[in-house]
Amino acid sequence: MILLKLALRNVRRQIGDYLVYFVTVACTVSLLFALCSMMFSELIFNFSAAFKMETRIVSAFLAVVLAVVSAIVLGYGCLFLLRRRKKEFGTYLTLGMTRGNILTIFMGEMLFTFLFSLAAGLGLGTVVYQMIVAGVSAFMQTDYAWADYTAGGFILTVVMVGIIFLLTSAAALAYLKFETIARLLQGESKTEKTAKHPKVWLVVTAVSAVVLVISLFVLVLSVTNTASKNYASILVGSSAAAFLSIVFLYIGAMKCGIYYLLKNKRFSSRGTRTFTLRQLSGRMSADSVIFGVIAVLLSVVVAGGNIFITAFGTQAADAQARNPYTVGVSCPYDETGALTKDVLPGWMEEFGEVEEICLYDLFAFREDSLVQYLSGDAWIMRESDYKMLAEMAGEKPGEVGENGALLVCNGTTIDAFEEKQRQAEALIGKLQWNTAAFSLTFTGVSPTRLALAVDGPNSYFLAVPDAVVDIAESSGAYSASMTCCAVNYAAGTFDEEGLDRFLSQKNREEVYQKFLEEHPRHQGITNRCFLMNTVGGSLSYLLELAAPWLLIVLFVTLAFALLSMAVLALKSLAAVSEDRRRYPLLYLAGASRRQTFASLAVQIALYFFLPFAVPILLNIPLSFICVALKGMMGAYLTDLQVVGYTAMFSGVILLFYALYGAITFLVARLDVGRELNSAG
Questions:
Q1: Residue 521 region by backbone torsions, left for phi larger than 0, else alpha for psi between -120 and 50, else beta
Q2: Which of 80-89, 177-186, 340-349, 421-430 has the lowest mean pLDDT?
Q3: DSSP class per residue in 111-163
Q4: How many C-beta neighbours within 10 Å does residue 319 have?
Q5: Gap between the Cα atoms of 41 and 650, Å rounded
Q6: 52 in Cβ contact with 551 (< 8 Å)
Q7: What is the C-alpha separation between 42 and 547, in angstroms, rounded?
């Protein structure tokens, strides 16, 4: 009991030393609690009902990965705290304590820290869990619902945290068992390391930088050239070369960079730069491999996250562009209207509160003068229907004009849309469509590219004056036709399953089967008279498919970021602990407290953020790669949107780095401040 009281007193007195460790454990517990809660939450898995088992397996796998990563990081932190207090424990041994007593004290300190962190982490985890549910709800485009907490999630979190505590305790036991009293009393002795063979390492740095640039250039080219016979091998080889060159770039730069900065007297002699650089010289060289490994991990996170966001964003934009209404129903055109036009509006009103509805017809003509530009037959729509549909989709319609023909791009990609706009510049007012009944002149391209025509049989159609369509309809000169109904329901009132069952029943009725046989040209589909397309149709399936991958990207990013941030923070504090007696010397030599703390801030900032330098710069080639992927997948996003996503993803990671770096600096500042106060 006395030893446990001593342990609790030590935790209170050395709260600054334990702060980063406490924050790391609390963050780990919060993430584990969120993951474990998700594993037992039906609400989360209902978001991905079609892939429920896959999502559950992914969550369990990520929980194990996060626990392993956390055990490694916290084990390192445990050893850091032990080494930081070597002399204290050595003194305990000389005073007659046994190694068992010391281990009891230290394990008591770790236990109290873990208990405090567990309480804080569970509290934070409840918030993180709800934030994840809210984020997934927004991602799945569903209303947010409060997620329940389960006993299973709580118990599993406590068990996993207990296992991590036992592993870190084992690491401490092994360390204290093999350390001698002499080495403990010696404390942390640091020898000043000078760069060996700096010219060789400068060559390594230059060669690595060149290899990195070349491999990234080849990687960008390989992504855009999928027709290459060696596409897969080039892609894998260039990626491996890039990651290896990053490691050697950091090793070379860290081993010679400080040397050449110190050699430049004009740079190093200003202010406290010489002191700052000398403080960094030994650490940079010794930790160069760690820097390289962390940079590779962060590069993988940045690349994987950006590619996932681009792929999903492109597909989501595609799904959204193909139906901007709540629901659309299409069927063959009925000249009498009895089987389609007269009944569709009434049917739609039975399955929700209708806010807007538009019933319209499309007619196709084989017009040679327009075939090449339209990439197929000339499908026409009434101008009034076109404007009504644009209003329902929240788009601004273009002007058709008297005797005009306005090209409408029906759910096309951005590239195809812009290509039609470029082609139109030379055709406006010149391309004409003349028949015995009417004469039309091409007036341009509609400013919208959404699929205004539900299940349109072509990617393009012409909006023409209503009178022209009336003539075409009455004359019967069209080669194909269809009737469509677009509906926007009040939020939360649409019974999608009910409408789907209703239309499926109608499709099986003999009268509609016979009607379909008499109208065979209905987008190549001959077994259904009525086709339904909802705003959540393909998009909801895409969201369900993406949900497990979203979890992987999210938690792998958090795990890798937590690993790198915690390691860098603990190593920074270890270095400050080793060198803290040098800061009073700098202060007594004439530097102000502000200059002394500024030197400390520069050291931590450089040490903390240098591993993130290359991953941030990778956003440049990644932007080209993501733009190329966007083009390969249909280019439904603009280049600016893609670049914005890559910058946003890296910016979020950088923000968390800044917060962790700020905590590290505050702890180190307290440590150095005590030394300055004792020096007078």
A1: beta
A2: 177-186
A3: HHHHHHHHHHHHHHHHHHHHHHHHHHHHHHT----PPP--HHHHHHHHHHHHH
A4: 19
A5: 30
A6: no
A7: 14
What is the Cα–Cα distance from 126 to 26, expressed in whole angstroms?
12
User: Is the separation of the CB atoms in 451 and 321 below 8 Å?
Assistant: yes
In the prediction, which pLDDT does 3 show? Answer: 59
Q: What is the amino acid identity at position 511?
A: V
Separation CA 446–CA 410 (nearest Å) = 10
By CB atoms closer than 10 A (0-12, 13-18, 19+), residue 270 is exposed
Q: What is the pLDDT of residues 142-171, one digit of tens each?
A: 566 676 777 888 888 888 888 887 877 777
Structure tokens belonging to residue 259: 């040397």
Q: What is the number of residues in the chain?
A: 680
Q: How far apart are CA 594 and CA 84, in angstroms?
A: 26
d(CA 596, CA 632): 54
23-27, 222-226, 410-414: range with highest mean pLDDT = 410-414
Distance separating alpha carbons of residues 557 and 306, to the nearest angstrom: 11
Q: What single-letter amino acid sits at 231?
A: Y
Burial track 233-264 (b if 16+ CB lie within 10 A, e otherwise): ebbeebbebbbbbbbbbbbbbbbbbbbebbee
Token pair in block for residue 160: 């996993």
Residue-wise pLDDT tens digits, 4-16: 666 666 656 555 5
Q: What is the DSSP code string of 576-610?
A: HHHHTTHHHHHHHTT--HHHHHHHHHHHHHHHHHG
Residue (of 554, 621, 577) closest to 65 by Cα position: 554
Three-state secondary-structure class, residue 533: strand
DSSP 8-state assignment for residue 338: T
User: Cβ(479)–Cβ(366) under 8 Å?
Assistant: yes
Residue with tokens 């109208």: 519
pLDDT single digits (tens) 30-40:
878 887 887 77
Q: How confident is the model at residue 289 (pLDDT cuts 50, 70, 90)?
A: confident
Q: Exposure string (b/e) for 584-613, b if CB count within 10 Å is 16 or more?
A: bebbeeebeeeebbebbbbbbbbbbebbbb
Q: For 197, which DSSP code? A: S
**Location of structure tokens 């041994």:** 93
* CB contact at 8 A, 25 and 114: yes
pLDDT at 383: 94
Rg (CA), the chain: 34
Q: Distance between CA 403 and CA 135 in Å, rounded?
A: 50
Closest CA to 316 of 144, 626, 132, 540: 540
Rounded-to-integer distance, Cα 215 and Cα 546, Å: 30
* CB 532 within 8 Å of CB 503: yes
Distances (CA, A) of 420 to 168, 303, 634, 675: 64, 33, 15, 71
Can you name the residues that pair with 461 across neighbouring β-strands?
408
Contacts of 62 (CB under 8 A, 6+ apart): 35, 551, 552, 555, 556, 559
The owner of tokens 């008297």 is 402
Say which residue the tokens 């409060």 belong to.
146
Q: Is 438 helix (H, G, I), strand (E, B) or coil?
A: coil
As a whole number of angstroms, the distance between CA 92 and CA 85 comes to: 11
Check if the beta carbon of residue 204 is closer than 8 Å to that of residue 251. yes
